[in-house]
Design goal:
This protein has about 500 residues and is α+β, with helices and mostly antiparallel strands. Helix content is about 35%, strand content about 30%. The protein is built from 16 helices and 20 strands.
Length: about 500
């Protein structure tokens, strides 16, 4: 069970505790944490308690006792209480020690900005309090807030100014705001241990506490795109109002080479997971991922049989699928019509149920002076089947049908299949094509910001990706056509291409 689907608990209790903390003071509120923690621990769902038991067993190397299970619940409650005071700048009585600050100061002095990778371990707010003590640059935090809406609303009300410096991941402007912060020499903090958002759930399985765990690829891709130095940052709770902030060097830059992108991505995630493992073993009571982190519990017992899922795509299959989809436009037969806007064009496209076309494509890759030409045929059959066949300079076929993408090179005996539900960035590229051909504007807007100019007789649709993962590969897509026919399809990104399409009679 993913943490994204885990229900938020304790909104009323948290609101009451925040009020008591402001009125009655820290000491009285801290005493209340004991019965409050007991209640939430005993009333926690059985799956949550089992998930915490599994983490503690791996982190401690032994069977956890009730004290081991109590500590993370109590530490989490204590950091929530402290957050009330820290957000308001009321730091009297707090003891915050820092290690590694010299390395961070050196990064700040360079003026290039820095990405800080953190985790749901300890308190990120304690690091914010450290910044408030005199950090010479702005500190902006990027995190997914979807399953903690009540808590975020309560804490945002305590400090509107600090709330504005927390940017939800997955929004169209998230990456732009991160880039602008770094250009001003600021610090960009990202919690890199959970899937960042619904639909943004590409993960990299890497070793963590003795078993493979799914870590999000997004923070490492974002760091690579931002081209900034990267450090690790942990705010460890060590007792009542006591915190230790740790900064550690991670990478001068996260580099994802085109030829070895998946290998580089996995290596970066593995290095992060290895260091997080060391900190988690040292401070298991600071682990605040109260869910099935290894995503293994669904396999332990299931109430009823279910259809076998499609096999997960390999990293190599993901690379091939993305490259194939980048050049997978299809055409439709012309439809008559004059004037009209985007909705009229969508209607003209939707009216075409089946079509075939010839194409000529010119592809360019960053760093290569020459372009790569190819030609072949295209097929579209509503509602969801797309096919591209390359005949020169080699034989290749890409087919999308329903939720599956199949890539084949018959001459080499290659056949790879991708489940689109397990490859969100590939899904976005497929929908750029499929939803346009199907005239499904609502689906298109789930993945792309849609721009339009022209009329039914001669139109241009411009797509800008909403997902930061797609944006790391493709910056924009431009589709030109007439009536219900696509004449030209262009992608601009790491691998750019222009395809000219001629409808068959």
């Amino acid at each position: 069970m993913s943490w994204l689907r885990q229900r938020e608990r304790g909104g009323v209790a948290l609101r009451l505790m925040a009020w008591i903390a402001r009125v009655a003071g820290w000491r009285f509120s801290y005493a209340l944490l004991f019965p409050v923690t007991g209640y939430f621990m005993l009333s926690a769902p059985a799956r949550q308690r089992e998930a915490m038991r599994r983490f503690q067993r791996r982190a401690l190397g032994r069977e956890p006792g009730w004290r081991d299970l109590w500590r993370p619940y109590f530490a989490f409650a204590a950091t929530m209480l402290d957050r009330v005071y820290l957000l308001q700048g009321r730091t009297r009585g707090f003891e915050i020690t820092v290690s590694g600050i010299e390395a961070l100061d050196a990064r700040i002095a360079e003026g290039r900005g820095c990405v800080l990778l953190g985790a749901h371990l300890g308190s990120f707010t304690a690091m914010r309090a450290l910044a408030d003590r005199g950090c010479p640059v702005e500190v902006m935090a990027f995190m997914y807030e979807g399953n903690a809406a009540q808590a975020n609303a309560i804490f945002s009300a305590l400090s509107r100014e600090k709330a504005e410096l927390v940017v939800p991941l997955g929004r169209p402007d998230s990456m732009l705001r991160a880039k602008e912060c770094l250009e001003r020499g600021g610090l960009v903090g990202i919690l890199a241990d959970r899937r960042p958002a619904v639909g943004e759930d590409r993960v990299v399985p890497v070793p963590f506490l003795g078993a493979a765990a799914p870590f999000p690829a997004g923070p490492h891709i974002l760091a690579a795109v931002l081209r900034a130095p990267v450090m690790l940052a942990f705010g460890i709770w060590k007792g009542p109002r006591r915190y230790e902030i740790r900064f550690e060097e991670f990478a001068e830059r996260v580099v994802l080479n085109r030829a070895s992108r998946e290998v580089d991505l996995r290596a970066s995630a593995a290095r992060y997971a290895a260091r997080l493992e060391e900190v988690a073993r040292a401070f298991p009571g600071n682990w605040f991922n109260f869910y099935d982190f290894w995503e293994e519990m669904d396999d332990v017992s299931s109430p009823s049989p279910s259809p076998s899922p499609s096999p997960s795509p390999s990293p190599e299959a993901g690379v091939v699928a993305r490259r194939a989809v980048l050049a997978l436009p299809f055409m439709a037969l012309p439809a008559s019509g004059e004037g009209g806007g985007l909705e009229a064009v969508m209607a003209a496209l939707a009216a075409v149920r089946r079509s075939e076309a010839d194409f000529e494509e010119s592809k360019s890759i960053a760093g290569l002076a020459d372009t790569l030409p190819s030609r072949g045929t295209l097929l579209w059959e509503a509602p969801s089947t797309l096919e591209k066949r390359v005949v020169e300079p080699f034989s290749e076929r890409v087919t999308v049908s329903g939720e599956r993408l199949v890539y084949e090179r018959p001459g080499q005996g290659t056949r790879q299949e991708v489940n689109l539900d397990q490859a969100p960035e590939v899904r976005a590229m497929v929908e750029a094509i499929r939803s346009t051909l199907a005239g499904d504007l609502a689906m298109l807007r789930r993945y792309w910001e849609v721009g339009f100019e022209g009329a039914v007789a001669d139109w241009t649709i411009r797509l800008s990706p909403l997902s930061m993962r797609v944006r790391a590969v493709v910056q924009r897509v431009e589709i030109q056509g007439s009536g219900g026919a696509i004449r030209r399809f262009e992608t601009v990104g790491n691998e750019s291409s222009v395809m000219r399409i001629t409808a068959r009679p």
